[in-house]
Amino acid sequence: MTIRTYFVFFFVQLLICAPAWSQTTKITPNDPYIGTFSGSGLTFTLTRQNGQYSGSAVFEGQTLPIYAQKIGPEIAGVYVMQGQSLPFQARLQGDTLTLMAGGEVYTLTRQKIDQSLPGKVEPGQSARVKNDEWGMSFTIPTGWIARLTESGYVLGSKTVKGILLLLPNEVTSLDELHSGAQEGVVESDGIQLRLVGEIKPFGQNGLAANYQGTVQGKKARAYAIGLLSPYGMGAIIMIMVEPKSYTPEHTKSVEALARSIRFYKPPISPMAKEWKQKLSGCRLSYFSRYSSGGSGYTSETTIDLCAQGFFRYGLEDETVWNAVPGTLTGGYVMKYGKGSGTWQVVVQNGAPVLQLNYYNGKVAAYKLSTDEKGRTYLDGDRYLRTCDPNDQVVEARPHCW
Known about the structure:
Elements: H1 5-10, H2 12-15, E1 35-39, E2 42-49, E3 52-59, E4 62-71, E5 74-81, E6 84-93, E7 96-101, E8 104-110, E9 129-131, E10 136-138, E11 144-148, E12 153-157, E13 163-169, H3 174-183, E14 185-187, E15 191-202, E16 206-215, E17 218-227, E18 234-241, H4 248-260, E19 262-263, H5 270-279, E20 282-292, E21 295-305, E22 310-316, E23 321-322, H6 330-336, E24 341-348, E25 351-358, E26 363-370, E27 376-378, E28 381-386
Antiparallel strand pairs: 1-2, 1-8, 2-3, 3-4, 4-5, 5-6, 6-7, 7-8, 9-10, 10-19, 11-12, 12-13, 13-18, 14-15, 15-16, 16-17, 17-18, 20-21, 20-28, 21-22, 22-23, 22-24, 24-25, 25-26, 26-27, 27-28
């Protein structure tokens, strides 16, 4: 399993030499836009993961997905209605959110709920917690409180020292999971956790391991379980605490959480569906030019996104046409299918992503966006989108035969 240090560092002060959570213990998200705001017949809810906002707007009986990012003191984004992404802007002053959308201005007030972190679940609640972005649900262990952060779920107890973490894991095989578990964590910023003892199987799709070491100069002990999902995004469950405070209860809590996890195929979001409809059957072309001292080159990258689910990728420069193996090789195509591979649109951290799955195992991902004129961008680079197979310009025609 891969233990990512960004979350370890974030929770160092809470995990080591900290008392068990009390009712007054809070982790502040430092983002006033996280929460629920209501007014003018509109309820607006936002959470944040990896710097991207997502949530919902409930208006006149409709629940509309929303996606946004912070621009200066404001947030700006889109809400999805009837397959269209419509822009909005919002500015917060105190507990008052002023929202501008569709030519209207709405004044909303923050709802008085616990804002210590989004997604709080109190102990004793047996309802399953679902995360459609990960394709995962789980049940909170008895006596613990769960809260959602940018990195994953943080669980704290009022009686058990330490903090329990539930994080997404993109590993796809037990061999890869085993290799990551053996590595432990050794980072230059003072985090060193090494494997202790054997890596043991956990169910049919997981591994469990113990670790010990130091975090920022303080001794630490950890127990972690890594799980694979048949749908892509797996999970890491880990608890860390100072060694003298570790008890069998810590192990039981990690294993109870791990056993409660159920994986499912993430539903297609309205944003992903909209982008797939927009790109299906189209050619994306990117032009690059360079000149210096009287010499230079011109190149064109094309991606044909075919409605049948396959894509063709090509790079054409002055004299050479290069493509991923399979684009032009008949035997490769006969074995695997048409084109260079298959394509899909997914939503990651609230943003649409074009994912190209090559037949040779390579995966390429590009963040999708548009400007005010509706032009298409991949990772910030503008691509010309052409969708007519009978376009007068032959080079603009998507090749989807």
